[in-house]
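Please decode residue identities from the backbone states below.
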């Protein structure tokens, strides 16, 4: 996506400056001039042949290297990845004053950037007395690639105080600098300032710049700003379409991502989407468990011969896994000859979210046996699989192997996986000990995992301890307040429930509403617990009520304890029967053929009552029901769930 960070192609200026550093100090008829010319030609020829060492030997005998000679020497140093040779060439430039040539200074900065020596690049920039826009762009690019975003912005302010004016490359580099540092409101303000500068200087028609702006706003989670930029673009190319689709897919708006993809197909030739586009669209399908649409996309990928591109294959395996079709994901994996660690991770994760912990561990071991070294993501995936399957001892051994066998230091994510693994198994003392003995600072992930475990086992004291830290670390995360209130409600501590709700309201926070999706005949349908504008609302409520009445005769007892309000039982039952996943399941029963699995996606954790409800539906309606919540998959069949009631 950041193709603009490739080195700028710069035409040497036909100015007195260029002639100053390329003209021989000898007269054309001088024998020394002829010798100098021959040496320059020899150095250039050796560089083109890849003989850098010999070229440098000849350079030491050449009193007047030309600009072209220096340029080829610099490029050869990059090609050989030799910083020592680059420094040697730089010394020659400094000795004869050629380091003041803006063209060669730009080449030097690019060289040092490629050789990961940003400090030397900065020295070149600081020493040049008359920098052109090309020199400024080169240092912006070098620093942005090195993650020195704030330094770029400081230099950009400095440049704006000179007579040098930004060009289209300048804006892309300084925008990239804004995402080279940790996101903050101050940096977002800077992005908006650069955006205004772009508009004032008439660059809004430059598709390259505006696409970068879409990317940057996406990185700051400003989807509405990105969409406004995209909508106003007079010209769009595949990169700009892909950037906006990725913005939606990466910011929790999969519906919008799929809709924009359809718009892209209608407005352009269907061969227009590329592999980057397809990865984002498959990601959106995975988020919604839109299996049928995912299959259509798979067909498109095969027709366009994109099935040999590893990121696309990874996205396909993930999509099938998250849509509940593990066998199709496994088939894509098996048909791939060259498998990288990312592809192995996709398969491990897919089995993990379905609760097949032993299978995930088996694949993890197969990966190592095939000579592929596990990454941090590999361990996160396999530890997550152990957590979902309750494989405590296996998870502990894998965690220990990170350091002992693979020399990897656990991150906060790995510690969170271990806390979750032990906490779900009601080994809260061990989970707490891990938090206390961590070698790094426990962050929101770790404390959040501990709080989630407290909710499962209703441990009020430990939950309060976790929340004290969480309220400091992420004061605007409403989910932590809701979980604590849930734990208080389980313990019949209604005064505390009321206190937490007041705190939530005082801080202007709102609980994320429950939402579920189901795909019927390639069309996605969305349901919310309170959605009276939905034309199917009354019909679905009536069906759910009818089903619950019939199932009560078979033993179904509504779990009204999940309602965080002190109400009478009848009112609590009315609330739980209106949960979005029940409405989605009911919609599936009405609109799908008998024998077809019902696939539902939920944006939050599946509550205990909906879990029980789905088990009864699978038995008495004789339908396979698959519900994917925020954590894992639940396969309901013949009155039982694949999770074994462990989730």
């Amino acid at each position: 996506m950041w193709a603009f960070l490739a080195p700028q192609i710069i035409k040497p200026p036909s100015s007195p400056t260029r002639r100053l550093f390329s003209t021989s100090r000898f007269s054309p008829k001088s024998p020394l001039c002829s010798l100098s010319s021959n040496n320059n030609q020899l150095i250039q020829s050796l560089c083109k042949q890849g003989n850098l060492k010999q070229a440098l030997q000849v350079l030491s005998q050449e009193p007047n290297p030309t600009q072209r000679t220096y340029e080829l020497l610099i490029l050869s140093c990059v090609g050989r990845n030799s910083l020592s040779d680059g420094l040697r060439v730089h010394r020659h430039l400094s000795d004869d004053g050629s380091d003041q040539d803006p063209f060669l200074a730009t080449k030097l900065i690019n060289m040092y950037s490629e050789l990961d020596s940003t400090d030397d690049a900065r020295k070149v920039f600081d020493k040049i007395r008359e920098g052109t826009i090309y020199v400024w762009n080169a240092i912006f690019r070098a620093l942005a690639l090195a993650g020195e975003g704030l330094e770029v912005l400081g230099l950009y302010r400095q440049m704006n105080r000179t007579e040098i004016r930004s060009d289209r490359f300048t804006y892309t580099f300084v925008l990239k600098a804004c995402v080279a540092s940790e996101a903050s409101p101050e940096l977002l303000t800077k992005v908006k300032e650069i955006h205004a500068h772009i508009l004032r200087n008439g660059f809004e028609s430059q598709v390259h710049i505006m696409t970068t702006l879409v990317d940057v706003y996406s990185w700051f989670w400003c989807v509405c700003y990105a969409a406004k930029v995209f909508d106003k673009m007079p010209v769009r190319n595949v990169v700009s379409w892909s950037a906006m689709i990725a913005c939606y897919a990466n910011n929790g708006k999969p519906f919008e991502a799929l809709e924009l993809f359809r718009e892209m197909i209608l407005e352009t030739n269907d061969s227009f989407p590329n592999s980057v586009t397809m990865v984002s669209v498959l990601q959106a399908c995975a988020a919604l468990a839109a299996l049928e649409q995912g299959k259509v996309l798979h067909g498109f990928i095969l027709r366009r011969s994109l099935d040999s591109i590893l990121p696309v294959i990874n996205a396909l395996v993930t999509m099938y896994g998250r849509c509940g079709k593990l066998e199709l994901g496994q088939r894509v994996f098996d048909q791939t000859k060259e498998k990288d660690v990312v592809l192995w991770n996709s398969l491990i994760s897919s089995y993990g979210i379905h609760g097949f912990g032993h299978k995930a561990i088996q694949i993890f071991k197969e990966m190592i046996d095939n000579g592929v070294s596990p990454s941090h993501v590999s361990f996160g995936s396999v530890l997550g699989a152990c957590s979902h399957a309750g494989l405590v001892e296996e998870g502990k051994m894998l965690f220990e192997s990170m350091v002992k066998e693979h020399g990897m230091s656990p991150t906060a994510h790995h510690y969170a996986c271990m806390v979750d693994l032990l906490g779900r198994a009601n080994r809260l003392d061990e989970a707490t000990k891990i938090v206390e003995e961590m070698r790094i600072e426990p962050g929101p992930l770790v404390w959040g995992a501990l709080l989630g475990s407290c909710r499962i086992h209703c441990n009020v004291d430990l939950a309060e301890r976790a929340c004290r830290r969480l309220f400091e670390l992420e004061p605007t995360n409403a989910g932590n307040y809701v979980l604590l209130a849930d734990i208080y409600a389980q313990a019949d501590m209604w005064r505390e429930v009321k206190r937490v709700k007041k705190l939530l309201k005082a801080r202007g926070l709102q609980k994320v509403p429950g939402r579920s999706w189901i795909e019927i005949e390639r069309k996605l349908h969305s349901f919310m617990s309170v959605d009276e504008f939905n034309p199917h609302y009354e019909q679905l409520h009536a069906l759910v009520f009818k089903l619950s009445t019939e199932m009560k005769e078979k033993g179904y007892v509504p779990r009204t304890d999940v309602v965080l309000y002190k109400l009478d039982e009848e009112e609590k039952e009315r609330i739980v029967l209106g949960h979005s996943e029940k409405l989605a399941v009911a919609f599936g029963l009405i609109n799908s053929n008998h024998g077809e699995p019902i696939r539902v996606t939920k944006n939050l954790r599946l509550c205990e009552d909906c879990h029980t409800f789905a088990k009864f539906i699978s038995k008495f309606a004789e339908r396979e029901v698959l519900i994917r919540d925020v954590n894992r998959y639940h396969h309901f069949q013949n009155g039982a769930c694949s999770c074994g009631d462990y989730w």
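Observation: The chain is about 65% helix and 5% strand.
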